[in-house]
Amino acid sequence: MTRDEILASLFPNSSEIDVTGAMIAGQATLPDGKPIHVLGITQGQNLGVDEAIVLAGHVIEIIKSEDTSPILVLVDSASQRMSRRDELLGLSEYLSHLAKALLLAEAEGHRTVGLLYGGSAAGAFIATALATGTLVALPDAHPAVMDLPSMARVTKLPIEVLKAKAEATPVFAPGLDNMVRTGGIHIVWDETAPLASQLAAVLARPAGQDDRARLGAERGGRLKAAEIADRVVALATASHQGAQHG
Amino acid sequence: MTALAANDVSLSWYEASARQRIDALVDAGSFAEFIGPEMREISPHLAIFDLPEQFDDGIVIGRGRLDGSPVLVAAQEGRFMGGAFGEVHGAKLTGILRAARALKQDMVILFDTGGVRLQEANAGELAIAEIMRAVVEARRAGVNVVGLIGGRAGCYGGGSLIAGTCSRLIISEQGRLSVSGPEVIETNKGIEEFDSRDRALVWRTMGGKHRYLFGGADIFVDDEVLAFRQAAIDALKVRRRWDPAVLKAEQKRLERRLQRFGEAKDAVEIWQTLGLDAPTEIPALPTDAFLRAAGKRENADDAR
Q1: Strand partners, B149
Q2: Measuring CA to CA, which residue among A240, A39, A212 is closest to residue A135?
Q3: Which of A188, B92, B152, B198 has its CA 20 to 30 A from that of B177?
């Protein structure tokens, strides 16, 4: 689906969304008449310092406005921009700042929903889609940490060998199914059905804890993460009590 | 031995292992590890690639005391898989950050990482996202999370994004803080964009001095374990807020940086715009002279 088809299916009633190059920002109306903020990076754009500061600025305006409307973040990006200028200017701070803005919005009562409908990779994926409270995807989405040819170069393994290994585990190879199985994506929407009702279903879920590791364990793609993190919390808590009473 | 026993071992932070850094950082004898190497919680994924595992998966976590106060600690081992984040490695850090929030106890993270471990890239990428969320939730509950950067592997990739969520960053000249590494930029964009073998270019673009000068890091220290210890003690003395006002101030700070320096071609131009005397001399200055010269630096005091 194209961006415009997606917006039309999500918001058949009305939407007022500004498009500035690959960046979008605006508001729309949900089927129940309530407003929702819409932001996004589209057209497979790289996320660099200039893009990140614009998106973060929109999120901060929404947090300041003191409504508690949800925020939908559309994502079809490339990776972070790999350039001397972006790194010279401190790209890591800009990407973190954007992620922090989205995480703070969720904590301040705005539901944040990421909709991955194209690509996204590495630092751009972390700073946008993976910083939302609930991440959903359309079937054409293709998230990646690194593409297989680059991975072959770095690991010094032939690409055929990597492809064979990728059959056995979802843990390293790019692609939507692997990201679903490891728990990074909550649900893949049905693009043949209206998206508005599927969004309403996501918004109806209560906001809660970070449940991605638990999903990854249930789906068999990431068996250890949730158990290890829980065990550390239990050990630290027991040790703390021991230190206080001992 | 008292909890306040002096740590008197002089050691290069850059050269030290993760365990040596923790030993020198916290009060002598105060460290207790969680899920240590005896538990043999190894990566379940490296065997697929016929790679050796390490019993702690390249990260040491636990609790200790810092100048008498309880603190939670995580230290990455840059000598194992470049300190990269895999499933177990990342989950140990996520867990201890969640404990920091639950126990309202401050936390120090000793970064030494190239980023996500490619052999378990999806698990590592998700671990980064989970860790960032755990850091901000801890900070929102009033916990300080201080990052220390000066290791052999630097602080790259997802590690640099986690660093950006910390309340304070301590860095040495050897500490490099950047998303894409020099080799990655060169491979993707060509040697004209970034010559990864030009070490002077790497240091002045990504190194500790540059990051400190424009507010990318807060405290600059010698490459010395005791200097890092003292800086961590100082950083934890001030309770740092994290709320919409801080984020708004960071937005202004980062917008201003683009306005002031967005056209600069090289770090030296930025240092010149900052008004530093003899900007070309900055890379050669020893710490004392550098800190004197850095008087006109930008800071991120209430904007991180």
Answers
A1: B111, B171
A2: A212
A3: B92
Q: What's the rounded Cα separation, in Å, for the pair A15 and A19?
A: 12
Q: What is the pLDDT, as a whole number, of residue B8?
A: 65
Contacts of A229 in chain B (CB under 8 A): 91-92, 94-95, 98, 130
- Is residue B89's pLDDT more than 50? yes
Tell me the one-letter amino acid at B259.
Answer: Q
Cα A219 from Cα A88, distance rounded (Å): 41
Report the pLDDT averaged over residues A126-153.
Answer: 93
Taking the CA of residue B104 and the nearest CA in chain A, the distance in Å comes to: 11
Q: Which of A82, A89, A228 sits opposite B189 (nearest CB)?
A: A82
Does residue B222 contact residue B287 with C-beta atoms inside 8 Å? Answer: yes
Min Cα separation B229/chain A (Å)? 22
Q: Between residues 89 and 148 of chain B, which touch chain A (CB distance below 8 Å)?
A: 90-92, 94-96, 98-99, 102-103, 105, 116, 118-130, 132-134, 136-137, 140
Is the pLDDT assigned to residue A246 strictly greater than 60?
Answer: no
Partners of A73 in beta bridges: A39, A114
* Mean per-residue pLDDT, B223-233: 97
Q: Quick check: A181 and A216 in contact, CB under 8 A?
A: yes
Q: Is A217 on the interface with B (CB under 8 A)?
A: no
What ipTM goes with this model? 0.97
For residues A148 and A157, the answer to whether their CB atoms sit within 8 Å is no
Higher pLDDT pick, B295 / A148: B295
